[in-house]
Write a structure and sequence with these properties.
mainly alpha; 3 helices; globular
Length: 64
């Protein structure tokens, strides 16, 4: 599940849809962390960081 969500997030990022990319990648990282899937955490978490920086939300969305 994490792989498919992350792939959808990557596709959304490549299409320029940052909101959808953030949502998909955040879900992929959350699923990977829940199941301790280290390979996917290491792959998707940096992309989630890029999307977060591109949106200008360096504080993070956890507080919203």
């Amino acid at each position: 599940m994490s792989i498919s969500r992350g792939t959808l997030g990557l596709l959304a990022l490549l299409q320029g849809d940052l909101a959808r990319a953030y949502a998909q990648l955040h879900e992929a990282v959350t699923i990977a962390m829940d199941f301790n899937f280290q390979e996917m955490i290491g792959f998707w978490q940096p992309l989630l960081g890029y999307v977060t920086l591109y949106t200008g939300d360096v504080v993070g969305r956890a507080g919203s």
